[in-house]
Design goal:
This protein is α+β, with helices and mostly antiparallel strands. It is built from eight helices and 21 strands. It has two domains: about 200 residues, SGNH hydrolase (Rossmann fold); about 170 residues. The termini are far apart.
Length: about 400
């Protein structure tokens, strides 16, 4: 009889690791409490993120309908079309800005007719909620290939009290029009969230609040990779950084039940509107490579080369929960290289004043392809990685006991 060792589920282990997030940023964990007054100047804080992995259709999209009519040619990309990307802010406020991206594109992309509104259902927005998005006061902007940029602030006057319960779980619709042909489209393939797009040559219809113009659905996000909100001065932003486990593999379409979503709900229960958690996972991502920051591959650029774009460039980041290495080790990358990659990532984070929680790769005969050598490589990497249980540690292990604030 073959005996199989049972391992805790990846989600449970990650959530156990992330339970120590109450001490993620020691400078704020003991002072932030739900309902406390914030002092100091309000600041920008990341409230949603989606790390671009390449150009359509390269990636690991799930639940994706056929896009043959929406995008007849990947080389042509969008063709005089409007998009309505549905995103869920982790933190609410009355002033937002959107980061548009042409990071993996090969030619300039012009965006106009951009709007931000409260999502109702399907592609429809709540009537009267749509507000125009501008760029340096203008209604359009051209993004050169290999760049991203933030919009001007957008005021949503109807968000009078961000702490009110009726905003919990609500989503925003980011609508915009691509002028002419975009060429290869920068995207985040595995959104696990339904968004909407018009047929080619439909023109600029982002101002329309009903769903009629947006005839096609997609489970990916295009041309945007972050949304930020004006938040209290003591707001902490945590980034979930990793591969497909973080990105949402095996989670529910539109269910918001990835492990970062669950952790975010726990953090909000403890700290209210003083903490935001954003997801920077990419399905198939690795610690050790690829090394080209603009190389379009299914798993995206390696963690070390994308850390600047996907973590350090976001506003208000205090800490990272980093779960990665499975794809490296399953691909027979030597554990020493993975460990060296983690150490370098921690060094970069610490240079920028961030705390890091390193979650351990999961032992799995299925993921390891049934090869004990690969499982042993994982165990060796875990045993060799630095671990520290002191509250002041910049890298904290999931094996450490959970602490409560002030303990």
């Amino acid at each position: 009889m073959t005996r199989h060792t049972r391992f805790p589920s990846t989600r449970r282990r990650v959530l156990q690791a992330a339970a120590v997030a109450v001490v993620l940023a020691g400078t704020w964990a003991t002072t932030v409490r739900a309902g406390t007054e914030s002092h100091g100047k309000p600041k920008w804080a990341a409230t949603w993120a989606a790390s671009s992995n390449g150009v359509y259709p390269t990636g690991t999209a799930v639940f994706q309908p056929s896009l043959a009519q929406a995008f007849p040619s990947a080389a042509t990309g969008a063709d005089d079309q409007s998009f309505r990307m549905i995103v869920r802010p982790n933190l609410w406020g009355d002033t937002f800005r959107v980061r548009f991206t042409n990071w993996f594109g090969t030619q300039p992309v012009t965006i106009d007719g951009a709007y931000l509104g409260l999502h109702a259902s399907s592609a429809a927005l709540v009537a009267g909620s749509n507000r125009p998005i501008t760029f340096s006061g203008k209604g359009s902007v051209t993004l050169p290939a290999g760049t991203y940029l933030y919009s001007d602030p957008v005021r949503l006057q109807y968000v009078s009290d961000p702490d009110r319960f009726f905003l919990e779980g609500k989503k925003l619709g980011v609508s915009f029009h691509v002028v002419g042909q975009s060429g290869p489209m920068t995207w985040h393939s595995k959104a696990v969230q339904t968004s909407y797009v018009t047929p080619p040559l439909a023109g600029s219809v982002g101002h329309v609040e009903d769903e009629a113009p947006f005839r096609y659905t997609t489970t990916s996000w295009y041309f945007i990779d972050a949304v930020e909100v004006v938040a209290a001065a003591d707001t902490a932003v945590v980034v979930a950084f990793g591969d497909s486990i973080t990105d949402g593999t095996a989670s529910t379409l539109n269910g918001d039940d990835r492990w970062p979503d669950v952790l975010a709900r726990r953090l909000h229960a403890a700290y209210g509107n003083h903490v935001s958690l954003v997801n920077a996972g990419i399905g198939g991502n690795r610690v050790t490579g690829p090394s080209d920051p603009r190389g379009s591959v299914a798993g995206g650029p390696g963690a070390l080369v994308r850390m600047e774009r996907d973590v350090l460039s976001l506003s208000g980041v205090s800490a990272i929960v980093w779960l990665e290495g499975i794809n490296d080790l399953s691909g027979l990358v030597p554990p020493a290289e993975v460990i060296a990659g983690y150490r370098e990532g921690v060094r970069l984070a610490r240079l920028n004043g961030l705390k890091v929680i390193a979650a351990e790769p999961k032992d799995s005969p299925v993921i390891a392809g049934g090869k004990p050598g690969r499982t042993r490589s994982r165990a060796g990497a875990r045993a060799s990685c630095p671990r520290c249980c002191a509250p002041s540690c910049s890298t904290r292990s999931s094996r450490c006991p959970t602490r409560t604030p002030g303990s």
